[in-house]
Design a protein that fits this description.
The complex is a heterodimer of chains A (about 250) and B (about 625). With about 250 residues, chain A is of the alpha+beta class. Chain A is about 35% helix and about 15% strand. Chain A folds into two domains: about 100 residues, Ubiquitin-like (UB roll) (Roll), CATH 3.10.20; about 120 residues, Alpha-helical ferredoxin (Fumarate Reductase Iron-sulfur Protein, Chain B, domain 2), CATH 1.10.1060.10. The chains are: A alpha+beta (about 250), B alpha/beta (about 625). Chains A and B meet through α1, α2 and α3 of A and α3, α4 and α10 of B.
């Protein structure tokens, strides 16, 4: 006999004045290889067409479907019901603005944060279509890729104590991203410049070291290591700064 | 009508790799650009491409002697001579530049490591010597249908990494990205396209974008099929709004590619490497069958051939029944734990995480799935759409048309940034010379029309048909009758069924309130358009009485260069009609490479100059 699954799903439509936050319950018969992607779509198509949730790739590479699954942030597409008890409680990710039900606005949050940390290669080198590419060691390319594997699903942010308390904390994702740029010789930013970006309480010094980010990361990124390395590096730059006269005329928002 | 209006120079509908690359060109030239996206830009389908992009750099040992000429020839052959050779030429020449440009922007391409290296091909290990003077340059891997190894890559995350690299550039240039916004109709006066009416998918409100140039870069239309490897957002939204104008043709709608091994139930792709390394396909009795149908190559026959025999075998009652429909098994157990956990690591992870299957001792449920749309918004070599000035298209959504009737692995990811670079340049030229009047009266009319459509759906004015039932019915007809095996009787039956489904699609009524970011309303708004696209695919396939590339007809097995060396152009001038107006144009204006044998797959060809039959 297959199991009868009981889904408790958070419901709220902020655009509907009549809507109040509440929980709806749906029953679904478990089928082989059932993931939350299949289950939620079945519930929407067969039981409640207004149910809001987000999926795109359904193969854990796009990062759309982060939600709180029985109390833990994770990707719904990568979650098999067979790994869960019969009663499954689904909530939207905290920190991000709610669009409705299980759907949250991660896009705006990540774009703002990527803009804040200037998540791009800083270089004056113009591209010359005629010339051969600059050489790079393959091991370095692999190391950059290792950190570039982040899919911005928001699970690390949702599970972060600091991010839940203060709006302006950039989160483990951004600190990992900065580590990626520090590693890349094509980005010409200096340590003091990186310090200006993340050497603050909104950046690396806001991290309380609880490290839920690494526990919940669906890409299994080495966040603990990266946060540790970055903290040491930035503390060192910070110490040096104390003995240096302040630069004039440069101002960043944080 | 109260609505927000945004003005810009370039409006890109779609923020995957193609859309972002064109926006970068415009922004770098000093023009204002806005990207619209159904999802946050970094979640676009571009991120799913794992393998890599083709560019003839010739740095690695197995790519030695490669050049854009060889790449061009592979692409034309791959297309079964269905492509526009001018575009294939531009593509092959531009690809190396686009790859290096991406490196300049931060793309961590894998690099050549000098010295002896071990590689795999056809299940056999061999050694090659990578040259010292190439050490540190961008390397490449092998893909099907290519004479040289030319697929540049970053591990198994090429699309993801490339998309992040380009989106970083977009952020740097300050291009505005409006995500969770869906274009619902184009604004035009019959000659010029000046933007679109869109629906905010966070609030459900309509808004207007007025632009001097509009680009459609919305990816493929895989979700017309029940089984597809495409992301859930590839519903042909861009094709619908272009074709709805009645002026812009849908080029080669019938050119659709399938992949033999999508896993059941989610249709995530399992790499061909499984079969390459010795994996076998089994039926309900756990017996092999490919060795019966294709004694020479068995499981290693080409993608389309394997897919066709799999569907045939299922039709013979040999499929494995499941709650998700019949499927077959892929067996890699005999390769052993060591091989599976190292060489086929991705497959090992995929099976455990998404299926709960351990492929070391369990069978993998698979069946063929739709994979790529060669057809799309027909454009000229500048990326300018036929029929409306100021409208462009690029990437998988476009029929530019470098793929013809079959797309080579590694050429899809490449097309996004290569064509994107070229079309971006042409869009900039257009903007520099553009004298466009952004007529807000047309926009107001568009908003009134869309508001009325929404009200009719919410109030069930036209009927109470269930949108999900209509979608399921359409997808099933497409999968069963317009899939891998095609023949006149099935295609005719498909067209007939789809016309009935279209009649129902015009009578959809919502079951929910439609308030806010309502998903039922989103689907209901595009459902009639999706059925029209499906009819174009089926009807185009019915009329094309030959086999070419992925379009394989049992009743017309030869490639007919005499009568069908052309491209279908499907117009839909009257939305009340239930069939498109099909026209045709020659496949290519310039013929650098006359039709010949591809050197693989079927060889029966009716030559261009053979006499006509009665």
């Amino acid at each position: 006999m297959s199991r009868q699954l009981k889904f408790n799903i958070f419901r709220f439509n902020p655009e509907d004045p009549k809507s109040e936050p509440h929980t709806d319950t749906f029953m679904l018969e478990e089928t082989p290889s059932l993931t939350l992607f299949i289950a939620l779509n079945k519930i929407r198509e067969e039981q409640d067409p207004s149910l809001m949730f987000d999926f795109a790739c359904r193969m854990a590479i796009c990062g759309s479907c982060g939600m709180v699954i029985n109390g833990r942030p994770g990707l719904a597409c990568k979650t098999l019901t067979v790994e869960l008890p019969e009663e499954i409680t689904l909530m939207p990710l905290p920190v991000f603005k709610l669009v409705g039900d299980l759907s949250v606005d991660t896009g705006t949050w990540f774009r703002q944060t990527n803009t804040k940390i200037e998540s791009w290669i800083h270089s004056d080198q113009e591209f010359d279509p005629e010339s051969v590419e600059e050489r790079m060691e393959n091991d370095l390319a692999n190391s950059i890729f290792e950190l570039e594997r982040c899919i911005e699903c928001g699970c690390c942010v949702a599970s972060c104590g600091t991010a839940n308390m203060r709006e302006d904390f950039v989160g483990a994702f951004a600190l990992n991203r900065i580590s990626r740029f520090i590693m890349d010789p094509r980005d010409k930013r200096t340590d003091p410049e990186y310090f200006e970006v993340v050497g603050t309480d909104q950046g690396i010094f806001g991290c309380m070291g609880l490290l839920a980010c690494e526990d919940v990361c669906p890409r299994e990124l080495p966040l603990q290591d990266q946060l540790g390395i970055l903290r040491r590096k930035m503390a060192f730059v910070g110490l040096k700064n104390i003995f240096k006269p302040k630069e004039k005329g440069r101002h960043r928002r944080f | 009508m109260e609505h927000e209006t945004f003005y810009t120079d370039l409006l890109c509908v779609g923020a995957g790799l193609a859309g972002e690359r064109v926006a970068i060109s415009a922004a770098a030239a000093g023009f204002d650009a806005i990207l619209l996206s159904l999802v946050p830009a970094r979640r676009s389908h571009s991120c799913a491409a794992e393998g890599g992009m083709q560019a003839a750099l010739g740095n690695c040992a197995m790519g030695e002697g490669d050049s854009p000429d060889v790449h061009f020839a592979d692409t034309v052959k791959g297309s079964d001579w269905g492509c526009d050779q001018e575009c294939a030429r531009i593509f092959a020449d531009t690809a190396p530049i686009a790859v290096r440009e991406a490196a300049n922007w931060g793309m961590p391409w894998n690099r050549v490591v000098a010295g002896k290296a071990k590689y795999w091909k056809g299940g056999e290990e061999f050694e090659a010597e990578e040259k010292k003077d190439k050490h540190g340059l961008i390397t490449a891997r092998a893909f099907g249908g290519t004479a040289k190894w030319r697929t540049c890559y970053t591990a198994d995350g090429t699309g993801h990494t490339l998309l992040y690299t380009l989106d970083n550039k977009v952020t740097q240039l300050g291009v505005r990205v409006h995500d969770r916004v869906e274009a619902v109709s184009l604004i035009h006066d019959g000659e010029n396209c000046i933007g679109c009416v869109a629906r905010d998918l966070k609030t459900g409100k309509l808004r207007v974008y007025l632009a001097k140039a509009t680009l459609i870069a919305t990816g493929g239309y895989g979700r017309l099929y029940s089984e597809t490897t495409n992301t859930v957002i590839n519903e042909g939204g861009g094709h619908i709004i272009a074709q709805d104008t009645g002026l812009v043709p849908f080029g080669n709608p019938e050119a659709v590619q399938f992949h033999p091994t999508g896993v059941v139930p989610t249709n995530i792709l399992v790499t061909e490497g499984c079969r390459g390394d010795g994996g076998t396909l089994l039926d309900v009795d756990e017996k092999r069958f490919m060795d019966i149908y294709e004694p020479a190559k068995a499981e290693l026959a080409s993608r389309d051939v394997v897919s066709r025999w799999m569907m045939y075998h299922i039709a013979q009652g040999k499929g494995v029944p499941s709650p998700y429909g019949d499927h077959l098994w892929l067996d890699i157990r005999h390769l052993g734990a060591k091989h599976i956990t190292t060489k086929l690591r991705e497959v090992y992870d995929l099976c455990r995480h998404f299926l709960g299957v351990n492929p070391i001792n369990q069978l993998i449920p698979v069946r063929p799935a739709q994979h790529y749309s060669m057809g799309g918004v027909r454009t000229n070599s500048d990326g300018a759409a036929y029929g409306l000035k100021g409208l462009f298209s690029c990437g998988e959504s476009a029929c530019w048309d470098m793929h013809g009737f079959n797309r080579l692995g590694g050429n899809s990811l490449a097309e996004t940034i290569v064509a994107g670079r070229h079309v971006g340049m042409k869009v900039v030229e257009f903007l520099e010379g553009a004298e466009v009047t952004l007529n807000s009266r047309l926009a107001d009319e568009g908003v009134v029309k869309e508001t009325e459509r929404i009200e009719r759906l919410v109030n069930r004015t036209d009927g109470a048909e269930n949108v999900y039932a209509i979608k399921d019915a359409m997808q099933l007809v497409m999968m069963e009758k317009v899939g891998i095996f095609r023949n006149g009787a099935d295609l005719q039956a498909a067209v007939d069924s789809l016309r009935e489904i279209y009649a129902k699609a015009k009578k959809i009524g919502l079951r929910s309130s439609g308030i806010g970011a309502n998903p039922e309303l989103s689907l209901a708004l595009k459902m009639p358009g999706m059925v029209r696209l499906a009819i174009c695919v089926a009807y185009g396939a019915l009329m094309r009485t030959e086999s070419r590339g992925c379009h394989a007809r049992d009743d017309y097995q030869a490639r007919n260069d005499r009568d069908w060396l052309n491209r279908t152009l499907a117009y839909w001038p009257d939305l009340d009609a239930d069939l498109p107006d099909l026209r045709y144009e020659p496949s290519t204006k310039v013929m650098y490479m006359p039709p010949g044998d591809r050197g693989y797959g079927k060889t029966e060809i009716i030559p261009m100059d053979s006499p006509k039959e009665d």
